[in-house]
Design a protein that fits this description.
Elements (H helix, E strand, L loop, with lengths): L10 E5 L3 H4 L9 E5 H25 L47 E2 L8 E2 L1 H12 L5 H10 L1 E2 L9 E5 L6 H13 L10 E6 L2 H19 L4 E2 L6 E3 L5 E6 L12 E5 L6 H8 L10 E6 L7 H12 L9 E5 L11 H4 L8 H11 L4 H7 L14 H6 L13 E7 L6 E8 L5 E8 L2 H14 L3 E5 L13 E2 L2 H16 L3 E2 L4 H9 L1 E5 L2 E5 L8 H13 L20
Parallel strand pairs: 6-12, 6-13, 7-10, 7-11, 11-12, 14-17, 16-19, 17-18
Antiparallel strand pairs: 1-2, 3-13, 4-5, 8-9, 9-10, 14-15, 15-16, 20-21
Length: about 575
């Protein structure tokens, strides 16, 4: 009797080695044979199951790092097993930061004391905070407080605005509490009761700074001295001095006359809140001050970018004005993987800080690492200038060529308060080397162009229309909106092809970070967001590289033949 082929004991084709093991879809006849259908399926199923299991294991091992919280991902190794790269293998500069004789790291960017400074309330403030409030400031905090409270010969505060920016978890909140508490209790130095307005993007952030002071005030002055409500949080002393806590919005401070405004985590606060709502509250007060205290943000942080840029423009001036900048941050060209780079953003550097940063370094992405712990301003994720373009064109060692033409462009800020002079020149490798400087006055611009002409014999200078009849140095052409359209396209193309070479200048990075590409009447143009300034260095570079990228124009030649006469 013949069994049907579907019967368990029926005949079926088998192979040696089994197909379940080899996975071969088109086997030859060699090694073929006959086996019971049940036996064939049984050992074929087992082998196929084993092969699928091995395949899943292999796939699990090769999963990419993008599956961040996947259960298939290995637990991160201990921080000590993931050391940063050694300095000799670093791509970027690894210069060590300056340190004070007391051991703390000094600010990388710091405004010089003007000639009017005759002393500071800093030592007295630190002593008062220790004796009365029980606050023991760290050495770097004492240094910052000493600079912020510098006074002139009349014992009047020199700085109307103080910008302090430092990496996360460095002691900003402690210093913030110290500043507010000291001013709250020293109306005799200012001749009037003090009103301090403390704001932050979220009210809870400011409340967290005020809370220890509120608990202390409750014990010293009684429960009625402190309010914790949503509408009227703060401290009021029997003398009438007040520390008020508000959210940073358009109505903050409206209706108040304020002695000191303290803006916490200022990178999250909109500029119009300070310019339109908070600053006017100090108009009639004696020696008012505004503090902007923050970790670095991204290119959308218009408040910190604007105030900080004004301080940067006058950083090297002998008389720097009334804005004090103290910034602990790593240089733009520094390698983020080096421990020596980490120190720049951490004024209080010790083993505990290093171990903490090693853990963070192993866990978070580079943009967040740069912003939060190196205290570097970064370009937002959806910006037109990609990180890969900027980093791929970074070359601090690239030098301007000694021959050929240097293309120079001069641009001004939209409010006329800043000027930039950019140089662009192609080198022998086809890269366009760029350099840029910023200036406060047209006189400085004239001097810079003169220096460039003295350094290089062949220079082509472009200026925007606002400089006509204002510069003493001669220029070769004017550039405006029409030229900006084509120059924007050239700039993007050169960045995308990584044909530019820049030195990682802090000013240039931040001006590009502030920029956007918007459609105007003539086309798409590199410009600043509505109501913002601070991209004039980027636009100067744009015009300069566009000119430098132009191929030499060939001279038109007309060729003709003399008519010949035919002889008979």
């Amino acid at each position: 009797m013949t069994l049907p082929r579907t019967h368990p004991q029926g005949a079926s084709a088998d192979h040696e080695p089994p197909l379940a093991l080899t996975g071969d879809l088109t086997p030859g006849l060699d090694g073929s044979g006959i086996a019971h259908l049940h036996c064939n399926r049984s050992h074929g199923g087992k082998l196929g199951s084993q092969r699928a299991t091995e395949k899943r294991k292999t796939k699990t091992k090769t999963k990419t790092k993008t599956e961040f919280l996947s259960t298939t991902q290995d637990t991160p190794a201990a921080p000590r097993l993931l050391p940063p790269k050694e300095a000799e293998n670093a791509k970027y500069s690894h210069t060590e930061p300056r340190t004070h004789e007391l051991g703390f790291v000094l600010p990388r960017l710091e405004t010089k004391p003007p000639s009017a400074v005759q002393g500071s309330f800093g030592d007295e403030a630190a002593q008062w905070l220790s004796t009365v409030f029980g606050m023991e400031l760290r050495a770097w905090q004492k240094y910052a407080l000493d600079r912020a409270l510098e006074y002139d010969e009349n014992r009047q505060l020199v700085w109307s605005a103080v910008i302090i920016t430092v990496g996360r978890q460095s002691g900003k909140s402690f210093l913030s509490r110290a500043v507010c508490m000291w001013r709250l209790h020293h109306q005799e130095l200012f001749g009037e009761p003090q009103t301090i307005l403390h704001v932050a993007n979220r009210r809870s952030t400011a409340m967290e700074v005020m809370r220890p002071a509120g608990l202390w005030a409750t014990e010293v002055y009684g429960k009625k001295a402190v309010k914790w409500g949503n509408e009227s949080a703060g401290i009021e002393l029997p003398t009438g001095d007040r520390w008020l806590v508000h959210a940073a919005n358009e109505s903050a401070g409206v209706g108040y006359s304020v002695s000191m405004v303290f803006v916490d985590e200022a990178w999250k606060v909109k500029r119009e809140v300070v310019d339109d709502a908070l600053s006017p509250t100090m108009a009639e007060r004696e020696q008012p001050q505004i503090y902007l205290v923050s970790t670095a943000g991204d290119s959308q942080s218009d408040l910190m970018q604007a105030y900080r840029q004004r301080a940067l423009d006058r950083l090297d001036d002998e008389e720097p004005g009334s804005v004090l900048l103290m910034e602990w941050s790593a240089p733009a060209e520094a390698d983020p993987d080096l421990v020596s780079t980490w120190k720049w953003g951490s004024p209080e550097w010790n083993d505990k800080r290093e171990n903490f940063l090693r853990q963070q370094w192993a866990r978070i992405e580079e943009a967040a690492w740069r912003r939060e712990y190196l205290n570097q301003w970064v370009i937002r994720a959806d910006h037109w200038l990609r990180d890969s373009w900027w980093n791929g064109t970074l070359d601090p060692d690239a030098q301007l060529p000694t021959d050929g033409v240097w293309s120079v462009a001069v641009e001004t800020d939209f409010d006329g308060m800043g000027h930039a002079v950019a140089i662009a020149a192609p080198d022998e490798n086809g890269h366009i080397i760029i350099r840029v400087t910023t200036h406060r006055t047209i006189k400085e611009v004239d001097e810079q162009i003169g220096k460039i002409r003295a350094e290089h014999p062949s220079v082509y200078v472009q200026v925007t229309p606002g400089y006509v009849d204002r510069l003493r140095e001669k220029f070769d052409s004017l550039v405006g909106q029409r030229e900006a359209v084509s120059a924007t396209q050239v700039l993007q193309d050169l960045f995308s092809r990584q044909q530019l070479r820049h030195d990682g200048s802090q000013v240039l990075q931040e001006h590009f970070a502030n920029s956007k590409i918007s459609q105007r009447q003539g086309g798409w143009v590199l410009t600043a967001p509505m109501g913002q300034n601070g991209i004039y260095a980027a636009r100067a570079v744009m015009f300069a590289v566009s000119q430098a990228a132009k191929a030499p124009r060939s001279v038109a030649t007309i060729r003709s033949r003399r008519p010949t006469r035919r002889h008979a």
